[in-house]
Amino acid sequence: MIWASTVCINLHHLHQKDTSVFYSAASPPYVLMVAGLIAGITSAYAFQATLKELVAVWSRSRSTRALQSLRGAPLLVPVVGVSGGVCVFLASSLQLFAFPALPSYAIAFPLTVGSAGLVWYQLGRLLNQLERRTGKALDFDALT
């Protein structure tokens, strides 16, 4: 009977050692998660405000020059800010589920870059429709 309880204790101790290989951080990065969320939200607000302003300029002049300014740095910088904030938030959130930092960022980075690329591509397609004057169904006046 004593031998069986010793084996059970040793197996339990061995199991505890094995689980420490999977997650070695003392605590998940809650501060980074909140910072990423705040960065993403504030950058999204900057993106919205910039887009509204540039669309208002375009709706007054209806020139293609105003549409070209929509494709430049004034909108690209907030998109990069949103992407960075989302990447940090997503990777930090994965670390809550016992993922190490490197695999978390290896998962979060391609997802974030892919999503941001698709959003930027869709925005470019909408602007091309406006340039060709085929975007009659687009209600950009509601944005102003």
Q: Mind explaining what this structure looks like?
A:
- This protein is mostly helical and 144 residues long.
- The chain has one domain.
- Helix content is 80%, strand content 0%.
- It contains five helices and no strands.
- The chain has helices at 2-22, 30-61, 64-70, 73-96, 101-131.
- Helix 4 (73-96) runs antiparallel to helix 5.
Distance between the termini: 79 Å
Principal-axes geometry comes out as: elongated
Largest sheet: none
Order of helices and strands: HHHHH
Radius of gyration: 24 Å
Q: Low-confidence runs (pLDDT<50, min 5 residues)?
A: 3-12, 17-23
> What is the mean predicted local confidence, pLDDT?
78
Structural class, by secondary structure, is mainly alpha
Number of helices: 5
What's the total number of strands? Answer: 0
Describe this protein with a few key phrases:
5 helices; 144 residues; disordered N terminus; mainly alpha
Chart the SSEs and their pairings:
Elements: H1 2-22, H2 30-61, H3 64-70, H4 73-96, H5 101-131
